[in-house]
Structures are given as C-alpha cells and as structure tokens.
C-alpha cells in the first residue's frame, strides 16, 4: 500500500504544479489520435470527410457506452468479459419482440435496458454473495448470454423484422439539426453523468476506495456489497443502452454482433489509464481512448488494410498499454 | 492438505466439521462427477440409443482428449494462481503451422514437430515475461495475446481453412484407430497427462506449484522463488499447448483458425469443474481429466438427442457458473482472485 500512497502524492504534486506537467506525455493519446487521422487522410482522402467523421463518432457511441460500464467495474477491482454478449442480448430482446408484435418503442427501449440490467445483476450476485472472481463469472455469463441470444434468434440467424415501428431507428440512425447523430448525443449525455458520478460524488470516491482496498473500505464503514451491486446495476444499464443503440442502428440482429464492440471497449479502459498520466483506469481517459480505437478501426477499413491486422493491432495496443504502465513495477517480484 | 488450507481465512469452516468430517457427504462431493457421468450416460442412452455404442463412446473420448490436454495446461497455470485465456489460440496457431510445415513446405515430420514446439513454447514464454517480469495482470495480458494470435492465424490461412495433402505418418499420434476402435489421440493424451500428473503431484517442483497458488505468503516465507515458479508454469503451459496443437493438427488434418473458439470454453470448464473432484476446490490433474471427459459426454449427448445449437452454449455457461459456485462454497477463501488493472 505504501507504493500507492506514494503515487497518489506524486499525482497530487503533478496536478498542482501545472507548469511542470509534461504536455507530451500527459496528452499522448490525443497526439496519437491526431497522428493517425493525418496518416489515414494521406492514405485515403475520403477518411477526412464530414460523413466519415460522423460515422466514426457514431460507432464510438456504442463502444463508448460499453467502455463506460466496464470502467466502473474495473474501478471496483472487477472485470467483465460478458459486455459484448450482454449488449447483444439486449438488442436481440428488443428485436425479437418485433417479430411477433408491435409494441411501442418506449416499451422496446425499456425491455432492452432491463435485459442488460438483469444479466449484470446476475453477475453481481455471483461475485458479491458467493465470492467467485469476476472474470470467471462473466466468462460463464458470456456463454449464457450468447446462448440466450441464439435461442431467441432461432439458432443464430440474422433477424430482419418485416416492419419497424415509427421512430425505431431514431436513436441509431437519425441526426439532430441534420448533422449531429442522436447516438452521439446519447453517449455524451451518459458520459457526462458518469464523469460527474465517478469524479465528483462520494459514491465515486467509494468506488475507488473499494477498488484499492475493499477490506479497508469495509472497516471505514463503506457498505461494500451494496456499492458493488449498484456499480453492476449502473454498468448493466449502460450495456443495455449500448444494445438498444446497436439494435436501432442496424434494424436487424444476430447472435454475434456484440463481439466486435467488446475488444475495443476493453482496450479503451486499460489504455485510458495512460491519459493525463493518471496510471489507473479513469473515465476521461477511457472516452479519449474509445475515439482513438474507433479512428483506428475505421481508418483500417478505409485504407483497405487486410482484415486480420485488426485483431493483431488491437492485441498489441492492449499489451503496450498495460506494459507501459506496469514496466518496472512488477507485482510478482515484490 | 485439503482441510488445512483455509485455517487462516476468516470465513473458515466450523471446528466440528473439521474434526468429524461427514464421510458420506465427503464421498458424495469428491466423487460426484463420476456419479453425474454415470447418470447422464444412462439418461442419454435412454433417449438416443446410438449414444451407447462403443464407436460413439470412443469417439467422444477422442474429442475429450483434446479438451483435456488443453485443460491440463490451464490447470497448471490456475494451480499457480494465475490465468491464461490465450492457450487455445496458441494451440490453434501451432496446429496451423504444423499442417503448413508438413503439407506446404514438406519439412520432415520430426523437425516440423520440433519447430511447432519451439513456436508454442516461445509464445507462452512471451506470456510469462509479460505476466511475471513486467507485472501485467495475467487475464488481460493473455487476452491481448489471444487477439494477436487470432489475427496471425487468420493471416497465415488467409481467413479460411487450410486443406493440404498430408502424409500417412502425420495421422499416427491423433487419428489412427487402434484395434479399429480406440483413437490414438486418447492414448497420446493419457501418456502426457500421466507425466504432468507425476510432475505436479510427486515431485518437489510440482508441490511448489501448489504452494504458490494456495498460499502465496507462506510459499515466499519458506524460500520458494515465486516469479521463477510462475515463469516455469508458463513454460509447462507452452509445452502442453504445443502438444495439443500438434495433436489437433493430426486429428483434424486441417489448419482451421476458428478451432480456438470451440475449445476455449470446454477447456476452461474442465479446469474449474475438475477442481470439485477429489480435492474440494483445488484444481488437480485427475479432476481435469474426469471433467474433460464429462464435458465431452455432455456435448456429444446433446448432439445425439438432437437439441438445438444454443442449448450447448447455455449448458456450458451454466456448468461453468455452477462449478465455480461450488468451489467458492467448498473451499474457504474460494478461487484465488486474479489481479486486474
């Protein structure tokens, strides 16, 4: 624990001696985003057009919502590998209803978000009450949620509802004032709420306290179990919103759509720790990283790079991101 | 050692339970997997008569041997208190390279196997360096590795399945049926499992693996070098993953980058389900073998009774959650948490 407090002290000094801050190192993610935008524009001028930039931020909104949820879980010292599967299930729940009936869109949104919340609460029940490590529980949930999605889509085929109700694609496809995608507005709305919640409220401080030492947090009177369950509830709702956006963006759904949003979201959370040299997952860094990853994904497609490079680059970024923060600070060697 | 581990943990079992263990309950818990196996066997046979033929039984044991071999590597990592999610990707990449070396470049079999092992061990050593010496959380580090290896696998096979002409000798370790019935993959698996079991259970080094995973602090106090043991467990993981890759190549005869996905969950399940066999919550080789065969039986049986595809996914998720729940309830202290972030 001594190392941690020392780090916090260093952060404190850094923060209050602003002239000593290293602009290059602190904002490294921003420089990388700008650099990659320039490179991709040189390779393919169509990259830097208004239409494509809005496509990028539209994709970023789904990845971003998942990353926000995951970030909360990582702050309390957990992990969630079922995010893609849960978001996918939320989208499937929404669209499967359209195959048999025409409920109102508000009901559809509500059921989608509820699906996310319920699965995430099941995760939290195993983690908090039985004490199973989060990564195994969510691994099991990944399989369960994918199975449920397959069951509802009758074996994983893509479901196209014959007619979508009025306003169904509003969230995913339409723009406010003709330019700003609604999906992005939703993402910014939730990102603002989560930033305020995590950084500026006692609840957020409690989350960090539980994450750094849940035993100590318990001793100072924080209701660890309750806070953990609320954290999972909030993330489940965020996954649910992500799933609702996913469904309304594509208007059709199959059981394997969530997977492509999962890896960028996971990487964003760990990469975000490098932002402002904070050294631990934080919401602002995560949001910046989400944009970086979506720029890369989109740029790779625009530059016609082979598809197999994407997982390779994603994996390398993840390893470099955590290696950069851990180098020389080995936990096993102490 | 079964009962004494948890003494220092605060949610310890009651004193009476430690002094006077309930024998029936203990027997039921320790050998429950075998009971489930038998019950399911009769259940599946009653619904699908084709299930209980010798041909099908050996077929499912052959499938179980791949799951089991992959799970052996993971078991050894989990025993040391770490986790590795890239093992299936390593094995798949090794199998693709083996098929390529022999089928495309016509390298002699022995040298091809040697190269395959060098690749597999090398990849696992990278994992070991990342986790042990750089200090990355093992789950996230191996997740990154899995992503990279999946990409490389798709690159090598150009995104499709690699079909090539392979010599007959290539089939010896995995595809040949001894007496026209017993698959050679089962024999290869049992031979490797025997050596791994002897190593982990009967040698000092193997006991150190358990010591590091069960009580990190105590192991450090008695002078076991933790980084060294963990690094060695990653090397052993590399050896076993390469062996599974070579076996997969021999059994399937193709290089398929999607193979990792279908073996990842079964092997993870075999590891954690195996921990409820014999040792009340501690992963062990014998348990892993039994659990792998049980899982193969369930997967095969579900196909035989004609259940839709999604049932398998729901069942495997439920088994994983059920087995880790049992471990957490049985073993004081539960599964050692893997450090994240």
* Oligomeric state as shown: heterodimer
Residues in β-strands, percent of chain A: under 5%
Number of helices of chain B: 14
Mean pLDDT score of chain B: 85
Q: Can you tell me the residue ranges of chain B where pLDDT is under 50 for at least 5 consecutive residues?
A: 1-11
Q: Largest interface: which pair?
A: A-B, 58 and 57 residues
- The rounded Rg of chain A comes to 20 Å
**What class would the helix/strand composition of chain B place it in?**
mainly alpha
Percent of sequence in beta strands of chain B: under 5%
Descriptive notes:
- The complex is a heterodimer of chains A (334) and B (341).
- Helices cover 72% and strands 1% of the residues of chain A.
- Chain A contains 15 helices and two strands.
- In chain A, strands 1-2 form a two-stranded antiparallel ribbon.
- In chain A, a hairpin with a 3-residue loop joins strand 1 and strand 2.
- The radius of gyration of chain A is 20 Å and the shape is globular.
- The C terminus of chain A is likely disordered.
- Chain B has 341 residues and is mostly helical.
- Chain B starts with 14 loop residues before the first helix and ends in an 11-residue tail after the last helix.
- Classes of the chains: A mainly alpha (334), B mainly alpha (341).
Quick structural overview:
The complex is a heterodimer of chains A (334) and B (341). With 334 residues, chain A is an all-alpha fold.
List strands and helices in order, with pairings.
The complex is a heterodimer of chains A (334) and B (341).
Chain A: H1 2-16, H2 23-26, H3 28-43, H4 50-75, H5 83-100, H6 105-130, H7 134-152, H8 170-173, E1 175-176, E2 180-181, H9 182-200, H10 202-212, H11 214-219, H12 224-250, H13 259-271, H14 283-302, H15 309-326
Antiparallel strand pairs in A: 1-2
Helix pairs in contact in A: 3-14, 4-9, 4-12, 4-13, 4-14, 5-6, 5-7, 5-12, 5-13, 6-7, 6-12, 9-10, 10-12, 13-14, 13-15
Chain B: H1 15-19, H2 23-30, H3 32-47, H4 54-79, H5 87-103, H6 109-134, H7 138-156, E1 162-163, E2 177-178, E3 182-183, H8 184-202, H9 204-214, H10 216-221, H11 226-252, E4 254-255, H12 259-274, H13 285-304, H14 309-330
Antiparallel strand pairs in B: 1-4, 2-3
Helix pairs in contact in B: 3-13, 4-8, 4-11, 4-12, 4-13, 5-6, 5-7, 5-11, 5-12, 6-11, 8-9, 9-11, 12-13, 12-14
